[in-house]
Design goal:
There is one protein chain. The chain is globular. An 8-stranded mixed sheet has the order 6-5-4-3-2-1-26-27. The protein folds into 2 domains: about 5-215 and about 460-565, Ribonuclease Z/Hydroxyacylglutathione hydrolase-like (Metallo-beta-lactamase, Chain A); about 220-455, Rossmann fold. The protein is built from 17 helices and 27 strands. A hairpin with a 7-residue loop joins strand 8 and strand 9. Helix 9 (about 285-295) packs antiparallel against helix 11 and helix 16 packs across helix 17 (about 545-565). With about 575 residues, it is α/β, with parallel strands linked by helices. About 30% of the residues lie in helices and about 20% in strands.
């Protein structure tokens, strides 16, 4: 009897990550992530209701990254008796402090600022990357960059005594993917985030499936094409419509990527964008940008002794016409990025090539006002349901000269999702629409929405099915072919259809490689999974649910075999 695992969320949804691990013999009891549930009708009930464990019995929490759906309930643990440490990379720690302090301000929060300030943060053993970090007796963590946002990592938990020479290992290991980014080593198309790393072999893996049923077209991973689409959208909005452009963006990651692309376009086309004001209206995004500015210069030392940047994409240097892994060029790039991210940074380095035209293009006005004429507003509130973007939408929804550029996924129920549905409709078709939009407490008839709505692609921070499979079936050192990192994979963090699609794709890929991978779709009916026995611990109450899950898994394996044989 050893380490056990229990899934609390996200099961058939994409928010509220929380995994509980318990070793009744060694006495270890901890969580991997403890996030808020967001965007559904039961979210508030889940976030405010009783926790499925006693926080006072936990030893520690491991945090994969700083998004609220992964860290948002950690302060509540302290409110309810937890006194342990939260382990994460120091970049995740810095971002989580910012995100949680902001969340504590809102009505209905399940904690206050004082609970956020009580969190005991720690980066174990200089956690970047792959090192064995001891966190208890015969218990270690290993961190691997995922390329999702700054500081984001997958985490491997290794439990059990190290085997002596000649002994069969009784250790068990399980890797939690966290959220996996879309940058691969061969294609770092997101400029500020280095590629996701593949972990070492492990007994079990827990993998997200946000886009487990989606395979993106190659152009969605093409930085040059993304810049071209943005340039086309801006020149039409600013040059032809002669109106303001509103770009709502999430504060962590998306705003920084947008700022980079805008700065690069302004540097590449100085005549086109000369005199166009750029307003950055997002207090939290500015705090996040300061964290990015401080962190992008962090380095790690490889086993070979080479020192490399930990988080910043190598491909960025190619984009800017500079040399990779050259200290002088790294200093030039970091100086330009700090100027872009921080209003108080004074440039120090002379800059060649396109960076000769690089300058900070945004301002942050003391008072919020509706822009007049060609201008760009990058503002908080990615889903448009809250944040500064609502001020601009309320003023500009009926303005046919204005443009709203949505920069990523929007849930159908969100304001951004409802606006997205209007994007392809002409004004006559919009005029026939019934219903209204709630903006700052006002009901705006759909027929009154006159601004142009555009959708920008290529900014996703999540890997698609192909990327998830590449992570799970990496080519390990000294291996001749891709190898599954685990023989048992739990698929979580996805809506029902993407979860099932990814599970089937995993089993199909394993068969194609001449092997087999067991996939599990945990549900609320499952209890604990024993990592030693490799099975669910059933009681009379959930035995039927367990048998159903096993039958479904066998059906998926049969379908994968039949599909492979048919091909």
């Amino acid at each position: 009897m050893g380490l056990r695992l229990r899934f609390h969320d996200p099961l058939d949804r994409v928010t509220g990550s929380c995994y509980e691990l318990y070793d009744p013999v060694a006495g270890h009891h901890f969580l991997v992530d403890c996030g808020m549930r967001q965007g559904d009708r039961l979210a508030s009930e889940r976030n405010q209701g009783p926790l499925p464990f006693d926080p006072s019995t936990l030893d520690f929490v491991v945090l994969t990254h700083a998004h609220l759906d992964h860290c948002g309930l950690i302060p509540r643990l302290y409110r309810e008796g937890f006194g342990g440490t939260v382990f994460a990379t120091k970049e995740t720690i810095a971002l989580a402090k910012t995100v949680l302090r902001d969340a504590a301000r809102y009505e209905g929060a399940s904690y206050t600022r004082k609970h956020v300030d009580r969190i005991k943060w720690h980066e174990p053993g200089n956690a970047v990357f792959g090192q064995f970090c001891p966190v208890g007796t015969n218990l270690w963590l290993r961190f691997y960059r995922t390329g999702h946002i700054l500081g984001a990592t997958a985490v491997t938990v290794i439990s059990g005594p190290r085997p002596r020479p000649g002994e069969v290992s009784a250790q068990r290991s399980i890797t939690f993917s966290g959220d996996l980014g879309d940058n691969a080593e061969s294609n770092e198309h997101a400029p500020l985030m280095r590629f996701r790393m593949g972990p070492a072999l492990t007994d079990y893996a827990v993998v997200e499936s946000t886009y487990g049923g989606t395979v993106r077209a190659p152009e969605q991973r093409d930085q040059a094409r993304r810049l071209e689409r943005l340039h086309e959208a801006l020149t039409t909005a600013l040059g032809e419509r002669r109106g303001p452009v509103i770009m709502p963006a999430f504060a962590v990651g998306r705003t920084q990527d947008l700022l980079f692309d805008l700065h690069l376009l302004f540097a590449q086309h100085p005549d086109t964008y000369s005199g166009v004001p750029v307003i950055l209206d997002g207090p939290m995004a500015m705090n996040v940008s300061r964290v990015y500015a401080a962190a992008l210069g962090r380095t790690v030392t490889h086993r070979s002794g080479k020192v490399r940047l930990a988080w910043l994409a190598k491909a960025l240097f190619d984009t800017l016409g500079l040399r990779r892994d050259v200290a002088e060029d790294e200093a030039i790039v970091l100086d330009a990025l700090r100027e872009m991210l921080r209003a108080d940074h004074v440039p120090t380095e002379p800059r060649p090539g396109v960076l000769a035209n690089w300058r900070r293009i945004w301002t942050c006005p003391e008072e919020r006002s509706v822009p007049d004429g060609p201008s760009i507003v990058v503002t908080g509130g990615g889903m448009c349901d809250g944040g500064p973007v609502q001020f601009y939408l309320r003023a500009l929804l009926d303005d046919p000269k204005a443009t709203l550029l949505l920069t990523g996924y929007a849930s159908p129920a969100s304001l951004a999702g409802r606006l997205q549905c209007l994007a392809s409709l002409g004004r006559e078709d919009r005029a026939r629409q019934e219903g209204s939009l709630d903006v700052m407490g006002d009901a705006v008839p759909l027929s009154d929405v006159q601004l142009h709505i555009g959708i920008l692609s290529g900014y996703s921070a999540h890997a698609d099915q192909a990327g998830l499979l590449d992570w799970l079936f990496g080519t390990l050192p000294d291996a001749m072919a891709p190898t599954p990192i685990a023989k048992t994979v739990f698929v979580t963090h996805g809506d029902p259809s993407p979860r099932r699609a990814l599970a089937q794709a995993i089993e199909r890929r394993a068969v194609e490689l001449g092997g087999q991978v067991r996939t599990e779709l945990p549900s609320v009916d499952h209890g604990w999974f024993d990592l030693d026995s490799g099975d669910w611990l059933a009681d009379e109450r959930d035995e039927v649910a367990l048998l159903r899950a096993q039958v479904e898994a066998l059906q998926r394996r049969l379908a994968a075999l039949e599909s492979a044989n048919a091909e």
